Amino acid sequence: MKILWFFVCCLCIALNYVDCGLYDGFKIYELATTNQTIGDGLDLSELSRNESFFEQYSISGSPDRMMVHPKAQADFLQLLQIHNMSYTIVNHNVGLKLLTEFITNSLLRRMYPYQGRLGTKRYY
């Protein structure tokens, strides 16, 4: 019963920390850029200057990934359609992904606080 109570408390604390919802609704798109789309005038670095878009540069030769604000997704999709760019959605909700990772990591830190090593705060 104490473990269940502890788990519920940890979950409530984690939800309070991440409750601000900074990335709720953000989506990550993976764009397949070709030389033709770059020649058509679509410059991905120009999109990163806009507050609605965030460009995540990738290793050369691999597709680019863009994180898009929820309010700007319609404009972004229209821009991709104009330039005939194909895309796939890598992450549908960045805020939810961050929340689940935060909760998982906090529970793992509580289960294995010193990762098998002796801590300096314990005296035997």
From TrEMBL:
Residues 1-20 form the signal peptide. InterPro entries: M14A-like_propep, M14A_act_pep. Coiled coil: none annotated. GO terms for molecular function: metal ion binding. Pfam families: Propep_M14. Keywords: Metal-binding, Signal, Zinc. Transmembrane segments: none annotated. Residues 46-95 form the Carboxypeptidase activation peptide domain. This is Carboxypeptidase activation peptide domain-containing protein. It comes from Drosophila navojoa. The lineage of its organism: Eukaryota, Metazoa, Ecdysozoa, Arthropoda, Hexapoda.
